[in-house]
Design goal:
491 residues; Rossmann fold; 6-stranded mixed β-sheet; 35% helix; globular
Length: 491
């Protein structure tokens, strides 16, 4: 057995009285992909940060390629060949793609930045990921999926010997994910060690050689075979028996709540469908198919270029999200930290911002009214936090519950959820699915957009499939499966 390229022994980390890692041992070998799994708060990000030099352990030791290893900064780790690709995007929107890929490591010629070489090399990395856009293009305006691939291109350009991928496919569709997997397999064959963090169990089975599970800061299990039954893996993560993931989907009512007829907008055209009372309508398709653009238009965030949006039989003219909210259409966006929350502000404040008109009395808002409103939301949706606690302190699942809570307090007629469980662990996902089904049981029309095909199939009564900006078909729950959806999505 060869020696590991990276070895951790007894690594612990505390923040004051709170211990987030406890005596973790971990070995990573050259040419293997190791899945690091656990619920939010299990310690995955802290452990990754220690390896990548952004955190220092409170105790324990590490070795890298047989030598003592204790990086004091990410730069030191990168220089040694260890690279972490964060789940949170860290690109500079005003710079070009090429400049973002090589920022801080500019190709030089004659004492100046070699722009031609920089663009050519960046374009090569984009091509490896099947991202067909110019490396000279500014990052601003690119989709979340495109930006995620650029983050990955940055790491590929570093020629890393150990790569840590934190939820790399959270914003990617099937084709983009497979392109990434192809690169991971190539890197593995070249002897690169890879730590792969994901909540998507099907991906884990496809791409990893070994699985390590953390729970409450401790290493609790290791599975040498990635074909281990999913239930066994998940139960080790959550520490309890997992009876089900998706709750029973209710039968939709007979009356349409939302109708779109010949609807067109930026990135899509000619959408035609209804959402009935108590129905969960899934929207599926590859990245770039127009999924987010469609629901942003229905939510008033983007302009309608053709067609009609109709709510309970009445045509709507939506010039802004405020118009949609007033009519009873609300949307939980795909990027909760940028578009859904003011993360530096408290849980209660975030819930309040969308409901000032509901909480105020005669134009005045009292501290008591705010506290009672926030406590009711926290209690109703099981948010693990206190109203005054900053939203930035919460796990991804609890942040998402805050975003959902603030909109549901308005008793909407239509709720749109774009990537509702992106970056959320398996245990917390079940709680989000319960909320979605609970809305349908109350007669609310629900639209769920997701890159996770299993999720769309699990929660939807029907699925609208988009392909290249057009509606390719609508599938009933009984006829929808992986194959039927992908056949339409790749038309």
């Amino acid at each position: 057995m060869p020696d590991p390229i990276l070895s951790l022994r007894g690594v612990s980390k505390s923040y004051g009285p709170t211990q987030v890692l406890r005596k973790v041992d971990l070995d990573i070998y050259a040419g293997e992909v190791v899945a690091l799994l656990g619920e939010n708060g299990a310690g995955k990000s802290t452990l990754s940060g220690i390896i990548a030099g952004s955190n220092s352990p409170s105790e324990g030791t590490m070795t890298w390629q047989g030598e003592p290893y204790a990086p004091v900064s990410p730069r030191e780790a990168i220089d040694k060949g260890l690279v972490l690709i964060h789940q949170e995007l860290k690109l500079l929107p005003e710079l070009s793609i090429a400049e973002n890929v090589f920022i801080g490591r500019w190709p030089m010629k004659g004492g100046r930045i070699d722009h031609r070489a920089m663009v050519e090399r960046a374009q090569q990395q984009l091509a490896r990921l099947n991202l067909r856009i110019s490396a000279t293009r500014q990052v601003r305006g690119l989709s979340t999926a495109q930006q995620q691939l650029i983050e990955i291109a940055k790491a590929l350009a570093l020629n890393a010997k150990l790569l840590i991928l934190d939820e790399p496919t959270a914003a990617l569709g099937g084709a983009e994910t497979q392109a990434l997997f192809q690169q991971i397999r190539k890197l593995r064959s070249e002897g690169v060690g890879i730590i792969y963090i994901s909540h998507r169990m099907e991906e884990i089975r496809q791409i990893t050689d070994r699985i390590v599970v953390l729970r409450d800061g401790e290493r609790v299990a290791e599975f040498a075979d990635s074909s281990t039954p999913v239930r066994a893996i998940v139960e080790s993560m959550v520490g309890r028996s997992l009876e089900r993931m998706f709750p029973p989907v209710p039968v939709a009512g007979p009356k349409p709540v939302l109708e779109v007829e010949g609807l067109g907008g930026d990135g899509f055209q000619d959408a035609n469908f209804q959402v009935m009372e108590g129905e969960i309508l899934g929207i599926a398709g590859l990245v770039g198919a127009g999924r987010t653009e469609l629901v942003r238009t229905i939510a008033g965030a983007d302009p309608v270029t053709s067609g009609v949006i109709r709510l309970k039989g009445r045509d709507l003219v939506l010039k802004s999200p405020a118009d949609a909210i007033e009519k009873g259409i609300v949307m939980v966006p795909e990027d909760r930290k940028i578009q859904g929350l003011v993360v530096e502000h408290g849980i209660g404040e975030n819930m309040l911002y969308a409901n000032l008109d509901h909480v105020s009395r005669n134009g005045w808002i009292t501290k008591t009214a705010v506290r009672q409103f926030a406590e009711a939301g926290v209690r109703k949706f099981g948010v693990k936090g206190k109203p005054g606690q900053p939203a930035s302190d919460l796990s991804g699942g609890n942040q998402q519950k805050v975003v959902i809570a603030k909109w549901l307090a308005r008793d909407p007629k239509v709720v749109i959820l774009d990537e509702p469980t992106r970056g959320i662990d398996v245990g917390a996902r079940a709680g989000i699915y319960d909320i979605i089904v609970g809305l349908a049981n109350q007669g609310v029309a629900v639209i769920v957009v997701s890159s996770d095909l299993e999720e769309v199939l699990g929660v939807s009564n029907r699925i609208v499939v988009l392909a290249q900006g057009k509606q390719a078909g609508i599938l009933n729950r009984t006829e929808a499966n992986d194959v039927s959806v992908m056949e339409l999505a790749t038309i």
